[in-house]
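Exercise: predict the fold of this chain.
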Amino acid sequence: MTYDPKFMGVNSLGQTLIINELENNLKSFLDWGFLNAGGFTNIEKPTVNIDNFNLHILKPTQDKSRTNNTVWQTPRKDWIYESGVNYSGVYPINISGVYVNNTFYPAPTGSGSITYKLNYPEGKVIFNSAIPSGSLVEMEYSYRNIQVYKMEEFPYWKEIQQKSLENKTGFALSDKGDFSIGSEHRVQLPAVIIETIASSNSRPFRLGDKSLIIDQDILLHILSDNSHDKNNIVDILRLQEDRVIWLYKTDNVVKSGVYPLKYDGSKNINGQNYNLLVNNDDYKWIRCQFMKVNISDIMFTNIRMYGAVVRLTNQIIFTAF
């Protein structure tokens, strides 16, 4: 018998394996679950909130890699791109276009002299040519009430932005304050950050092969600027204990061209939502069960912020040997 010293269960170094699959799928599961529990806000034209903040009006923001006044942002980032969301007959707004000085330019690219692309996660309209700073730029959109990040998208140089729906004065400034920091460097609250930790165990699943039962712990860091939102998110996650979900295979989704977003944050017109992915045998992979949910508080000093950590034990049966 010839001895083969290669790795088992691995086809390629670039292959998406267990931890990355769990992170990708958990973000999709949380995003989809929050949306279908009503975790979105529709911004029509006009929408003025209780703090007299015009949420439908965009303002320019600094971007050192682009010409001034080409990047415009909404007060809240993380626009909703998924189709199929329905909360008691209410649907997120499908972005149809952008108004510049009361002239409508249809999405996703604009038309005529004003063209652009939309970056959904960062909440930006990126124009191909500068728009004069005094222009009135408006848009109808929906944003997620709870932003979900993987830890790799949440490095320590990212800024926590509190009270994003109240700071209308700061939003008007492009050269100072919270909103002058690019949205790719800001996390708006409430938020959930997914972190996989080195706490896992494996044991044999059956005789005759190398299949494993794998228990992998993941931490969900909850951050909020009020205790009500923190408590609600904690309770929602607590109630998922013993829940079984299907995982999709990320590599298959990407290769098939149905990942919902493109690399630049724009919407993929061929993309499929999470519900479709996990119900399609071409992408469905294995089942995952949330075996344990443990909760602990985060205490902040000298800052009015509320937090908790939910430790989630995910159990999968890995048979790719």
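Check your answer against the key: The CA atoms of residues 205 and 212 lie 5 Å apart.
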